[in-house]
């Protein structure tokens, strides 16, 4: 519990360490492991998550932005860091200064990266992103060999790795994964035919790491799974993962409301009988989506209690059923375990009409963290 507010997130760093070790055990010896700590470690804290992942055997770290990479370096983390997309050219001096490895998808960026690295008398490592069908970022698979060949003699550049990203790896046996993987292999063959060494070859994200072992190649990239979330239902039988985060609060007010009285904005919930209502000091600014109003539960005294009325920006209300005792200051679990009951992020995500990826990031927006 924090001193400033009666709502907080508890992060079990040993869970991240164990999850990385269990995921890495799925791969063959020599396969590198990249722990993705972008989006502030999916809301768990990037620096703390990175250290825990490295302790579990991660070889490299992945981030989305230059700022995220700089945060790791400022904290004294000097493991190899890959930016998973191409940054602006203006960021190149900071990349070189802090030894951050960018992804390259355009010749314009690559040429400028090489020029600035060459001016410093050094080589700038980069990873080539190959678009095998997701059509988000990357050099098209059929153009990748000529693209890389055009940069191979450019001073100041070193192709350290080549990678792609799957769009449907969370679906076991999906033919689109096979098709993307085949396109990637053809692109790699063309690179080698042109005399270009693709370096570290990687494709597998969390679901592919668990469900498609043939895609492991030289390195796997795991994000969601290192925090204890399963990227697909079919993954649950393949590896043991432990959720690293619990979300808790203390009741700031417990009171009785009479029959016919309503709760919160819009009066979307009305008491059918005299009811005990507890107020909790967290809301949609803390990642409990407003759309989940009247659809979720929390744990009080180890019992499920329904959330009632619209979730507010900073507060939400819950009904305390008969047989459940609640008082001012009592601990309430929003995500996690209490007694024999448990509430998962997936449960909240389903009520919010979204996925666990989005919700875990949302839960990291404002809640203070307590690390265990």
Strand content: 25-35%
- Segments where pLDDT lies below 50 for 5+ residues? none
Average pLDDT number: 96
Number of strands: 21
CATH architecture of the largest domain: Alpha-Beta Barrel
Query: Structural class from helices and strands?
Result: alpha/beta
CATH fold name of the largest domain, please?
TIM Barrel
Largest sheet: 10 strands, mixed
Terminal Cα span? 11 Å
Name the helicity range.
Answer: 25-40%
For this structure, what is the CATH homologous superfamily of the largest domain? Alanine racemase
Gross morphology: elongated
What Rg do the Cα atoms give?
A: 24 Å
Q: What's the number of helices? A: 11
Instruction: Assign the CATH class of the largest domain.
Output: Alpha Beta
**How many independent structural domains?**
2
Structure, described:
The chain is of the alpha/beta class and 372 residues long. The protein has two domains: 13-237, TIM Barrel; 245-371, Lyase, Ornithine Decarboxylase, Chain A, domain 1 (Beta Barrel). Helices cover 28% and strands 26% of the residues. It has eleven helices and 21 strands. The strands form three sheets. Strands 1, 11, 12, 15, 16, 17, 18, 19, 20 and 21 form a ten-stranded mixed beta sheet that branches. Strands 2, 3, 4, 5, 6, 7, 8, 9 and 10 form a nine-stranded parallel beta sheet that branches. Strand 17 and strand 18 (316-320) form a beta hairpin. Helix 1 (13-24) packs across helix 3 (46-55). The longest helix has 19 residues, at 175-193. The mean pLDDT is 96.
């Amino acid at each position: 519990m924090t001193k400033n507010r009666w709502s907080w997130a508890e992060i079990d760093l040993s869970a991240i360490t164990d999850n990385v070790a269990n995921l890495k055990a799925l791969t063959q010896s020599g396969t590198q492991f990249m722990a993705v700590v972008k989006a502030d470690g999916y809301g768990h804290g990037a620096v703390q998550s990175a250290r825990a992942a490295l302790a579990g055997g991660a070889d490299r770290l992945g981030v989305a932005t230059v700022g995220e990479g700089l945060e790791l370096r400022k904290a004294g983390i000097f493991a190899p860091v890959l930016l998973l997309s191409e940054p602006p050219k203006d960021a190149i001096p900071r990349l070189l200064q802090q030894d951050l490895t960018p992804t390259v998808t355009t010749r314009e960026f690559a040429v400028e990266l090489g020029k600035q690295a060459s001016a410093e008398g050094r080589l700038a490592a980069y990873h080539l992103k190959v678009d095998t069908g997701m059509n988000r970022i990357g050099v098209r698979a059929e153009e990748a060999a000529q693209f890389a060949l055009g940069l191979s003699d450019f001073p100041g550049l070193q192709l350290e790795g080549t990678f792609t990203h799957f769009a449907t790896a969370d679906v076991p046996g999906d033919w689109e994964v096979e098709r993307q993987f085949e396109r990637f292999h053809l692109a790699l063959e063309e690179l080698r035919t042109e005399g270009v060494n693709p370096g570290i070859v990687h494709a597998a994200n969390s679901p592919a790491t668990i469900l498609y072992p043939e895609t492991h190649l030289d390195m796997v990239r795991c994000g969601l799974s290192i925090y204890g979330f399963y990227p697909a239902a079919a993954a649950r039988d393949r590896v043991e993962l432990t959720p690293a985060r619990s979300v808790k609060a203390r009741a700031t007010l417990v009171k009785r409301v009479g029959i016919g009285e309503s709760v919160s904005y819009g009066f979307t919930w009305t008491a059918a009988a005299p009811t005990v209502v507890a107020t909790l000091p967290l809301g949609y600014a803390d990642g409990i989506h407003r759309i989940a109003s009247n659809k979720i539960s929390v744990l009080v005294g180890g019992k499920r209690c329904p959330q009632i009325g619209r979730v507010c920006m900073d507060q939400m209300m819950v009904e305390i059923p008969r047989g459940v005792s609640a008082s001012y200051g009592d601990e309430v679990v929003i995500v996690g375990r209490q007694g024999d009951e448990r509430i998962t992020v997936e449960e909240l995500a389903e009520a919010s009409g979204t996925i666990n990826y989005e919700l875990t990031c949302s839960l990291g927006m404002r809640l203070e963290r307590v690390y265990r």
